[in-house]
Amino acid sequence: MGLKAVVSSPSPAFSTDESGAVEVTNVGHVYETASGTTEALTDISFRVETGRFISIVGPSGCGKSSLLMMIAGLVQPTRGTITAGGRPLVQPDPTRIGVVFQDASLYPWLTARSNVEFPLSLRHVDHKIRRERAEEALDLVGLAGFADKHPHELSGGMKQRVALARGLVQDPPILLMDEPFAALDEQTRLTMGDEVLRIWERTRKTIIFVTHGLSEAIHLSDEVLVLTSRPGKLVDRVSVDLPRPRSFEVMGGRRFEELRERIWQRIRS
Ligand SMILES: Nc1ncnc2c1ncn2[C@@H]1O[C@H](COP(=O)(O)OP(=O)(O)OP(=O)(O)O)[C@@H](O)[C@H]1O
C-alpha cells in the first residue's frame, strides 16, 4: 500500500523519526520588485516533530503563505535555513512535501483521477501504478466513486478533496496546507476539518496548516504558531492542551475560550 496507514495513537509526545520533521532556523524573506522591497518575514525559528499537526495564524500580509512556500521549496529564504526530513530542500519535492492551496487548481479537462495522477505522470511512473495510487488517494479522501468526474461536476468541497488527494498521492511524510478551506461555506469547512483530522490520524503525516480561523486552528492542531504583522515574527507558540477527539463540548469549553483569547491577544499586540 502506498499511503501508509498508521494505527497507533496520534500526537506522540516524542518521536525519533526524523522523516517528517521540519526545522526553520533564523529565516527571513525580502521580496524585491520593480516598485521596491518588502520584508515579509524576519528571524523565524521553530521545529516541528514528525507526526505533529501545527497551525500558523497571524494578520493578513504577515507572511504565512511566504513561510509555507519556503518550507515547500517554492521560494528560497533570503536569510536562514530550512530542513525537511533533516535535509535542506532546494526545490519542490512532492515525495517529501505535499502542498494543498486555497484554490484547488485542478485541470478542468482532466478527470479527478487524472488530476490526482498528474504529479506521477510528470515523473513517468508506470500507468498501472499511477492509477492504483490515485485511486487509493481518492479513496482516502472519501471520493472513491468520483474518479471519472471532471472538476465542473464536483462541489467546492469535493474539488478540495481532489486537491488533497493530489497532495497525498506520493505519500509525502509532510503535508502543507495554505488556507485550504477558506473558500468553502462554514458547514463544508467543518466537515473538511474533520476529514483532515481523520486522514492525519490514519497516516500520521506532519501537517502545517495556515489559516485565518482561530477556532479552526485550535480545533485541528497540537500547537498554534502566532505571527505578528509584517514583517512577520514568531511571537507565540500555543500548545493546544485539549483532549482529542475535539468534541463539540470540548470546543465550547472554558479552556478552548482561554486559548482563543490568548492567540487573539497575541495577534492584536
Ligand atoms: N511575489 C511577491 N512579490 C512581492 N511581494 C510579495 C510577494 N508575495 C507576497 N508578497 C508580500 O509579502 C507580504 C507577505 O505576504 P504573504 O502572502 O506571505 O502573507 P499572508 O500572511 O499569507 O497574507 P494573507 O493572510 O493575506 O494571505 C505581503 O506584504 C505581500 O504583499
Automatic annotation (TrEMBL):
Recorded superkingdom: Bacteria
UniProt key word Flavoprotein: no
UniProt-listed InterPro entries: AAA+_ATPase (IPR003593), ABC_transporter-like_ATP-bd (IPR003439), ABC_transporter-like_CS (IPR017871), ABC_transporter_ATP-bind (IPR050166), P-loop_NTPase (IPR027417)
Matches recorded under PROSITE patterns: ABC_TRANSPORTER_1, ABC_TRANSPORTER_2
Record keywords, A-Z: ATP-binding, Nucleotide-binding, Transport
Keyword Flavoprotein (UniProt): no
Protein family (similarity comment): Belongs to the ABC transporter superfamily.
Protein's name in the database: ATP-binding cassette domain-containing protein
Lineage start: Bacteria, Pseudomonadati, Pseudomonadota, Alphaproteobacteria, Hyphomicrobiales
